[in-house]
Fold:
Amino acid sequence: MLWDKRGFQKGKRAELLFQKWLDNHNLPFLYIQQDINTISKSFLYLFKAKRPDFLIFLPNKNTLLVDIKNKNKTTKYEDLPIDSEELNRYINFEKEFKIPIWYAVSNEETNYQKWYWIKASKILAGIMNHQIPTLVSSKSNMSYHPVPLSLFTQIGEEDNLDKLFQSKINKTK
Structure:
């Protein structure tokens, strides 16, 4: 993957604003440092996994592992692009450790007032049932998945994470 300083800075901005959102909602969390020296080689090479950005502790004793993304909707469609290689590494994490990984995506367009949440495994299910295609970027030549906004759970500034689980319950009825 090519080093993109602007993309790195946008990602850090999203992480800081997400952290502020967590603090505003009094949700305890651990920020997972992403330096290469803070992860074992076995995690990277044996499991071919990737670690998320946050571990959030919920009042009901559940925990969420969350990767924060600063992504804009594609101009042609109502979707958010998710990198294929990264998704595969999160799926490896889920399979190996039996812990789901969530994406929380926001951007400057929404002034980071809306976060779009989705489980990595839900994206994989959409790919497997041909609801989500795999495309190749003409700019980077890397593959990605344009995930329709309709598959995400939208959580606004005043919402809480209960909406994630209400959405899950409503979709299984």
Remarks:
- The chain has a mean pLDDT of 86.
